[in-house]
Structures are given as C-alpha cells and as structure tokens.
Specification:
Helix content: 25-40%
Strand content: 35-45%
Radius of gyration: 15 Å
Number of strands: 4
Largest sheet: 4 strands, antiparallel
C-alpha cells in the first residue's frame, strides 16, 4: 500500500496538479462567464484540500485524480474548486462550486 501511495504522490508532483488547479481556479473565477463580479472573486483565497483517486467510474473509462481547493472570502469558506486529470496529467474537467447561498445569489 505504501508503494502505491508513494507512486501517487510522485505522479501529483510530476504533473504539477496542485499548481495547475490553483491556476485553473483563478482563471475560472476571473472569467467573464462566471456569474460573480471580479471585484469579489479577486478577493478569493484558495487552499489545497485533497487529492482523490478514482480508479473505477460508470462514466469515465480511465482512472483519474481530482484535486480539490477550498475557496474562502474574508476568512469564510464559500465554495470549492475541483481539477480533474487523468494519470498522465491531462486535464479532463474542472468545476468551481459556490456553496455560500448569499454569495451565489448576490
């Protein structure tokens, strides 16, 4: 088991998954397509939360890693960002989710 975990840690570092997730989150929140004004999203702070491996899924044929970042605004958690990549580091998907209803509907 330890060898598997070490291999996964190495993969995360080799493919810069954390830094790519931070970049993706900032790009998403500053996009014109995002429904929250950039005067607010520019104050978002992103903190690493977790890496999750999915090796079997009903819709995706290949294993993938999800890199999660917590999003805070004024020290209050308001959502999360998830960067999804295959085991070769290729981006498959991403999503930014605002969980704070007050912010979401402002």
């Amino acid at each position: 088991m330890e060898e598997l975990l070490n291999s996964l840690d190495k993969l995360v570092v080799e493919h810069n998954l954390e830094s790519r997730a931070f970049k993706g989150a900032k790009e998403w929140s500053s996009s014109e397509d995002f429904d929250i004004d950039t005067s607010i999203t520019s104050k978002f702070k992103y903190d690493f939360h977790a890496h999750k491996l999915c090796f079997r899924h009903e819709f995706r044929l290949t294993p993938y890693i999800e890199t999660y970042l917590n999003i805070t605004l004024d020290e209050v958690e308001v959502g999360y960002y998830c960067w999804v990549s295959d085991l070769n580091g290729e981006a498959l998907d991403d999503m930014l989710v605002i969980t704070d209803n007050e912010l979401k509907y402002s």
